[in-house]
Amino acid sequence: MYGFTTTLSGVSFDDALAKTTQALKAEGFGVLSDIDVQAAMKDKLGEDMPPYRILGACNPPLAFQALQAVPDIGLLLPCNVIVREVEPGQVVVGFLDPQVMVKLVGGAGVKTVADEAEQRLRRVCASLGGNAVSP
């Protein structure tokens, strides 16, 4: 598995997105990018789909450590977080497991950063409530 998720019920997509952004901030992550997949699919393909966003979350101290350990690790940054509506009132929030970096790159410096990032992201996931799914 390459990530972990939680499913929020009884919440609007916009509220889940705001709650996710706030929970990330509480763990030291900023959102560097916010890709509106729903809007892109409508604009580029004329296709309708439920709300779906990809957030590029970054914790600057951890990113700096990772870049110092392996400069090309920027190919794997930032940590992606998805927020997607399954149906009205049901939203999945998913997190890329930072341990994926360790599997691809290896090295003690990266492992230390991935461990810390994973702990923080799992706390974000847990703070959202919902039904968590983990590998």
Main β-sheet description: 6 strands, antiparallel
The helix/strand series, from N terminus to C terminus, equals EHEHEHEEHHE
Within the largest sheet, what's the order of strands? 2-3-4-5-1-6
Number-wise, the strands total 6
Based on helices, strands and strand pairing, what is the structural class? alpha+beta
Task: Supply the number of helical segments.
Answer: 5
The CATH homology group name? TT1751-like domain
Shape descriptor reads globular
- Mean residue pLDDT: 93
CATH T-level topology: TATA-Binding Protein
At the first level of CATH, what is the class? Answer: Alpha Beta
Through-space gap between termini: 6 Å
Q: What is the total number of structural domains?
A: 1
Helical percentage? 40-55%
The fraction of residues assigned to DSSP E strands is 25-35%
Rg measurement, Å: 15 Å
For the record, the CATH architecture stands as 2-Layer Sandwich
Low-pLDDT residue spans: none
